[in-house]
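Minimal example, chain plus magnesium ion.
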Amino acid sequence: MTSPTSGSSTASSSHTRMFERAVLVHYHEIGLKGRNRAKFERMLLDNIAASLTDIPEARVEKISSRLLVRFDVSERVFDIAEIDRITERVAMQPGVAYAAPVFISSKIEHDMNAAALLALREAGAGDSFRIEARRSNTSHPISSLDMNIAIGQHVVDETGLAVNLGKPEITVWIEVVQGESYIFSRKFPGSGGLPVGSGGKVISLLSSGIDSPVASWRLLKRGAVVVGLHFSGRPQTDDRSEHNVAQIGEVLQRYGGVGRIYFVPFGDLQREISLMCPPDLRVLLYRRLMIRVAEVVAKREGALALVTGESLGQVASQTLENIRAVDDAATLPILRPLIGMDKVEIIRDAERIGTFEISIQDHTDCCTLFMPRRPSTRASIKEVVDGEAELDMERMISDAIESMTWRDYACPAYRKPKG
Ligand code: ATP
Ligand code: MG
C-alpha cells in the first residue's frame, strides 16, 4: 500500500497506539487568591477559549487546578506544528504560568510508558533524562517515586539513555489527574500575571511610540482591561499614527486585554494651544488636555485609572516637575508602569510582546507638531495653570470627544459603555 498516510500509520503502530493531544495549562497566582479563585479560573478559561475561536475543534475545560485544551479529533488530527502554535497562543494569555503540549494517556503503566517515549522524542536530541511524575491526589495507587522508577526503567530499556536526576537534558513530566495522565517534555513559558478581567478597567494613553504599548501590556498582564486612547495630528497631519496604533491594538488583542481603542484627531486643538499659549509650555499643555479628555472617556467607560508610558528622565519632558504638572490636570490616578525602567528594558519588552516593529514604523507623532524650540523641563503648576488661562478648555474637551472614533477588539472581559 502506498497511500500518503502510510508514514504516519507506521509511526503510530511502532508504539501500538496513537495518543490524543491536548494543551495543559498551569497558572500560579490564581492559586493565591482564596475565595476569588473559582472566579479567576473562570476568567482565564473564558479568555483562553476566546483566543481559540478560530479553532472550532478546541474545547477548554477545568481539571483540578489546571486547564486543559482538548481537540475534537473526530474532526481532524492536529500535527505537532499546529499544536505548538496553539500552545504558544495559549501561553500568551495573562495568568498562564506555562502551557505544555501533552499526550493524554490512561493511567495504565503500559500506556504511560508508550506516551513517555513519544514525549521524550518530541524533546529532540539528548543523552540523559529524568521522569518527573506527580499525582494530583493520592487515589492513584502508585506513588510518584514508583512511577519515576518504573517508567524511567522502561525508557532506559527502550532507548539506552542515561538517567540523570540532577541536570538531565530532557525531562518528561507526568501528571496523573483524575482518570487520565498528561505526559509532556516541553513547557512554553506563559505571560504570568493575572487573567484579564480580574483587575478592572483602565484608559491607556496610547501613542504609536515604543513605550505606551508596553505600559498597556504591563497593565493587562496584571488583569486590567485596557481601553486605548490615541491622539493623532489629524487634520494637520496624515492618519498614519492611527493606523499604527490600530495595528498595535491587534498585537495586544492576542493577549486578550484590549477592548477598544479611541482615536481623537488632535491637530487643530494643538494648533489652538500653540497660538494662544507660551511656546515652552506647549507640550505640557497638550498633555494636560489629553488627560482631561481621557478623564471624560474614563467616566463613560467606568474606568478608574489612566495609564501612560512615561519613564523618569527618559526625555527632557519627563521630569518630576513635568509629571507633577500633568498629574495636576487629573482627578484619577495616573499609572506609569514604566517609570523606573530603562529604555533598553522597555525595548526588550516591546520586542517580546511584538509591538516594537510597529512602533518604529514611520509616522507623524502629534507631539512633534508645533514643537517649541526649547520645551520647559521645570514647569511649576502655577506657570501651566496661568499658561492655559486663555483657553476655552470646556469647548476644547467637547470638540475632542465629539470628533472621536473608535475600534473594538476581541476581549471577552470588556464591557462596552452604556448608551
Ligand atoms: P511613547 O514611546 O509611548 O510615545 P514617549 O517616549 O514618546 O512615549 P512622550 O512623548 O513624553 O514619551 O509621551 C509620554 C506618554 O504620553 C506616552 O507614553 C503616552 O502614554 C502619552 N502620549 C504621548 N503622546 C500621545 C498620543 N499622541 N496619544 C496618546 N497618548 C500619548
Ligand atoms: Mg511618543
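Residues 16-189 form a domain with the VC0802-like fold (CATH 3.30.2130.30). The first strand starts at residue 20 and ends at 27.
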